[in-house]
Amino acid sequence: MLSLFRKNKPTQKVPLEVVDITSPTQQSILGKYFIGQTQELTLEGTSHAWGGLVNPSDSKVNLFFDIFTVTNFSRYSFLAEIWLNAKLPGNPTISTYVHPSNLTLHPLPKPKVSLQFVSQTLGSPSGGVNAFDRIVVPNTTLISDSSKGSIIIPPGGSFAIFLLPLGSGVAQSRIVLTWWEEQV
Amino acid sequence: MKKWKNPQPVEVINTPYSVYAAFQGNYFFGQTEKLNLSSGNHAWGGLINPIGSGVQLFWNVYTISNFSRQPFTAEIWLNSTLVGKGQKSQNVSPSNLSLSPLTYPRVELQYAEGFSELPSDGIFSFIRRVEPGTTLTRHDFQGLIILPPGGSVIVLVRSPGTHQVQSRIAFGWWEENIRD
Questions:
Q1: A 27-66 residues inside an 8 A Cβ radius of B
Q2: What is the DSSP letter of A102?
Q3: If we measure between CA atoms, which residue out of B154, B77, B84 comes closest to residue B115?
Q4: Closest among B62, B74, B66 to B125, alpha carbons compared
Q5: Given an 8 Å threshold on Cβ–Cβ distance, is B144 in contact with A99?
Q6: Phi-psi region of B137 (alpha: psi -120 to 50; beta: other; left: phi over 0)
Q7: Contact: B123, A99; criterion CB under 8 Å
Q8: What is the ipTM of this complex?
Q9: Is A102 on the interface with B (CB under 8 A)?
């Protein structure tokens, strides 16, 4: 880091300094990065819940999934299953808790992708891929690592987190999802 | 063909943007005083970008300490009408202390406690559940939330009922002059 403060002479063999703007920050500056959350979800026994991002068939954007968080407000652990392109149960609500991360723009950009959720459904996902699972312990927020653009969902696809109890007891949760969108 | 004989990688130093901002004296951090929550009285700590500041606020990191034995919920609100009486924190510093004179932030770190109302407008962005006796330090939404002059972000710590709870909230951010 010392080299940053040194006047580099052309004859010296010193590394070039580049400033690394992470892709998410760059997407945010461009107004293409969005943050959204579900309402409070309830799960108990055979009653499940999910929250997810649905990329409409005619959106003309690819969805670059970045970060998810799952909060457990209860004293009971539950399981969070990550599903790609699955058919999800219940009649979903479209969340209004969605905003661009860059609030300096006029007008504020709107996402093409919609954040949807279902609370207290008896069904389970079908089709698609259950890519991985996480146990969410009591009274915590589980925070994923940034995918850094490695999960890309085309128009017609979806990314969803399906919550199911691991034992008895009522649990409340909220899911937060962040993503950016790029023209196909 | 000769130039393929001995290919050398180009050496670069990879500097995160937040570090670059720090070198220029545009990166700041600070914390609230200890905040008391009891029986329905909440608290918040936040960054307020004043109207006319001439800078955009890039919110980078935050930590939330829970000094009590009760878990609580922290709600992150953007551009909400501030509830309670905000006070300006003095515990604020530039991260680059090698500059002379030291730079100072345009953005204000404020906090409030002892109020029972919740924000009624603005954007309810996300939440965190904070375990007892811990500091939540996970730096997840780094450099994503950008706020114009007149904008604000607050971490609202909700009172968990009748229990006495103490908390402290810290922030790191950088500022960029608005180019026109």
A1: 28-29, 33, 35, 37
A2: B
A3: B84
A4: B74
A5: no
A6: alpha
A7: yes
A8: 0.85
A9: yes
